[in-house]
UniProtKB/TrEMBL annotation:
A biological process from GO: positive regulation of anaphase-promoting complex-dependent catabolic process
Region (Disordered): 1-35, 373-392
InterPro entries in the cross-refs: Cdc20/Fizzy, WD40/YVTN_repeat-like_dom_sf, WD40_repeat_dom_sf, WD40_rpt
Residue ranges of WD repeats: 336-371
GO-annotated cellular components: anaphase-promoting complex
SUPFAM superfamilies per record: WD40 repeat-like
Keywords: Cell cycle, Cell division, Mitosis, Repeat, WD repeat
Molecular function as annotated in GO: anaphase-promoting complex binding; ubiquitin ligase activator activity
Biased composition (Polar residues): 10-23
Protein name: Anaphase-promoting complex subunit 4 WD40 domain-containing protein
Pfam family, one: WD40
Keyword Secreted on entry: no
Length: 408
């Protein structure tokens, strides 16, 4: 398959507004957004509500021992003490959030850009600038950064879009029905669909490196190991498959569906179960003996994501709107009630400094995690700031503060 050259997309390219050539100053309390593309819906996306309604509280659970030493440490990148981070967040209105779970609606790039899929459109949040990347005729199920470009999927069709020029540049082989599992690592891209097939592409050659039948039925999530030598996938067949660079395939069986996977250092695989107990497991994939560490979270898992600074970030399915932090030895560190309705997707930045959640309450929240200040109450959040933006088709002022300026 040859992907070279500009691709003629089935997607509908965004239109250019004349307002982009006539920028006018506005209220300085309004942050900057781009005006190049007109929003495809009558309610502007990422537009902060003006009713000043009080948001759900963000408080960690108070029943955890947050100062005890680690009893067992499966990897080296762990702090000596369990510290509850201070959480500050920004809230953006996000209409048209799909309720088709699982979906990968948000993803951080290596440089901190956040791609967001809302209904039939994809947006990129870059500090104080929100850019409409594209819009299409069907629902976007998954977004993923590959280097500085965005891979997106809808109805099993997959394309690569140039973030700077906002044009499609490659088309990938389609999956049957749906593809919600996409992951990248340097020059490699992996896609996995509801057909149970995994395909791995090379950025340099535009070709499929290899493909394999990983699962019998839907694949929910796929992730590269930190060093890129292994790929883990999970699906509806109650198993997790790990494929190594040498094409060695290992299958791990579970009693229930595995909803999400993530990687810790040294080849330790994290799994989040769809069972009523919300089982989290660590699996040592590089040893001769299968060694599992298990913890019970209390409710079905929606997403697990490993961060170097804070351990494992976990979101739950259902109506709780809760996400949590777990230590590297699987002890719950803190619990945060942030949404009024179920969280549909969760993403963590590579350095663990930011977490994002998007919910059926039609809000996108971006959290900054920082070390607690000595002497401050445990888990007390700093003052929450609100995100203000203008409609995408409105003139804006260029001189604005940074997106995270008031959070630091």
């Amino acid at each position: 398959m040859n992907f070279k050259g500009r691709h003629s997309s089935i997607y509908k390219s965004p239109t250019t507004s004349a307002l982009s050539n006539s920028i006018k100053p506005m209220d300085p309390t309004i942050l900057q957004t781009t005006t190049r593309n007109k929003s495809p819906c009558n309610k502007d996306r990422f537009f902060c509500s003006s009713n000043n309604q009080k948001s759900p509280s963000i408080k960690p659970s108070m029943g955890e021992n947050v100062t005890a030493e680690y009893t067992k440490v499966p990897c080296h990148a762990i702090p000596r003490k369990k510290i509850v981070p201070i959480i500050t967040d920004k809230i953006l209105d996000a209409p048209d959030v799909t309720d088709d779970f699982p979906s990968k609606l948000i993803d951080f790039s290596n440089t901190g850009l956040l791609a967001v899929a809302l209904g039939t459109a994809v947006y990129v949040c870059n500090d104080d600038i929100v850019t409409e990347l594209m819009q299409r005729r069907t629902i976007i199920n998954s977004v993923c950064w590959w280097k500085d470009q965005v891979v997106l999927s809808g109805n099993g069709k997959i394309e690569l879009w140039d973030y700077q020029q906002r044009i499609p540049i490659r088309a990938f082989e389609s999956h049957v029905n749906k593809c919600v599992a996409i992951a990248s690592h340097k020059n490699k891209l992996a896609t996995a669909g509801y057909d149970g097939i995994v395909r791995v592409y090379d950025y340099r050659t535009d070709n499929i490196i290899y493909e394999y039948q990983a699962h019998h039925g839907e694949i929910y999530d796929i992730q590269f190991s930190i060093d890129g030598t292994q790929i883990a996938s999970c699906g509806a067949d109650c198993s997790t498959v790990v494929m190594s660079n040498n094409r060695r395939k290992m299958r791990y069986h579970f009693k229930s569906e595995i909803q999400s996977v993530s990687w810790m250092p040294q080849g330790i695989l994290l799994t989040g179960g769809n069972d009523e107990n919300g089982t989290i497991q660590q699996i040592h994939t590089r040893g001769n003996d299968e060694n599992r560490i298990t913890a019970i979270s209390g409710s079905p898992i929606g997403k697990v994501a490993w961060t170097e600074n804070w351990g494992t970030v976990v979101s739950h399915q259902g109506s709780s709107g809760i996400w949590e932090l777990w230590t590297s030895d699987l002890h719950r560190l803190a619990k945060y009630q942030c949404h009024k309705k179920p969280i549909m997707s969760l993403a963590a930045s590579n350095d663990g400094s930011h977490v994002a959640t998007i919910s059926l309450d039609e809000t996108l929240r971006i959290y900054e995690l920082s070390t607690s200040i000595r002497g401050s109450p445990r888990g007390t959040p700093t003052q929450k700031t609100k995100f203000h933006s203008t409609p995408i088709n409105s003139p804006v002022q260029k001189d604005k503060v940074s997106f995270y300026a008031n959070l630091r």
